[in-house]
Amino acid sequence: MINPAVDDLAVHVGTARACGLLGRSRAGHYRAKNPPPARPQTPRPAPVNKLTGAERAHVLAVLTSQEFADKSVAQAWATLLDEGTYLCSQSTMHRILHENDMAGERRRQATHPPRARPELVATGPGQVWSWDITKLRGPDRGVYYDLYVVLDIFSRFAVAWTIAAREDAQIAKNMLEHAMGIHGVPEAIHADRGTSMTSRPVAQLLVDLGVARSHSRPHVSNDNPYSEAAFKTLKYAPVFPERFGSLADARAFAGQFFSYYNHEHRHSGIGLHTPASVHYGTVGQVRAQRQFTLDAAYAAHPERFGNRRPEPPRLPQAAWINQPSQEALIQTA
To answer: Which residues form the signal peptide (predicted)?
Structure first.
């Protein structure tokens, strides 16, 4: 596109000046206007030491034989050399394998079947629980306390929690057993694949009580969203300390926090109700009171609401862990 511009300007100032003003190489300009003829491509002669077709086929047969099929080229080359056989160089072996789409890893590779995507639904409190463990910083570097928390995914109510100096399967079992003694036995309990979550004591407890076990896929934090969200609410709270001075300090803080979380925190995922209100079934009364207050505000100043009667947020009808797509729901209906 620049050649016509150079030609137009060259009429007034000359080609050399036009190329200089437009930042165009003069040699490049002339070459573009009069391209040199294409040079004929002469085939590269085959080297005199090239293997014949039969020799290359023999090399390929040896490398893919049962003895060398799972060995690297270097291993095969050295083994053959030790046996008194020289077929070709290692680079030639690599070229022959590459030409036959056999380059790369030659050993058998471990294959793992894909983990099932957990799909759980709760339409009311007491149906599905989720639990996890998070670390709390202790007084010194390298000192941590383990916070165990069990949530009801429908109400977001923390049905149990405990803090220990270590992660232990027996502590987890005792916590779950105590929670089920107070709040009843859920239909399913979801957790990630930590050592405590998959331990024999916890698994045996759930089997004995007839509770379905569900686990997250490896390295998929979204499979346990309720526990992860609760931990974020905890650790991003303005009052959350940088470190805890002792195990007793951590337990005292957690006691205050979970009392607030269960009974005062208005959760956006449950229609801005408190987890306790949803868990113990007082949502209807609370929502009726909210509607009464909104009705009074609307009656006093309807213009402030665009003449549209306001309603308090509704409580979702279900809580999902990995809700299936609408197409999948239709197929299973």
So the answer is: none
